[in-house]
Design goal:
Blueprint (H helix, E strand, L loop, with lengths): L28 H6 L5 H24 L4
């Protein structure tokens, strides 16, 4: 049985950071462009990677901050 595909994580904040991740949904440009062509398991695999990407982006933003 094929799982249902997840909803797109897009929140209409479309800007890529230095690492190539969208600052709204944390997908790469190729993942965004190919989302509708991916299978449900491929989409879910990306969805499951997003929390780690959020942490990566947030941690890299803290590196350059000063108080």
């Amino acid at each position: 049985m094929t799982p249902f595909p997840p909803a797109s994580p897009c929140i209409s904040i479309c800007a890529l950071d230095e690492q190539g991740y969208c600052l709204g949904c944390y997908r790469t440009l190729s993942e965004i462009a190919g989302w509708n062509r991916l299978s449900a398991p491929e989409q879910w695999a990306i969805i499951h990677q997003l929390p780690a990407r959020v942490a990566l982006v947030e941690n890299s933003n803290l590196v350059g901050e000063t108080k």
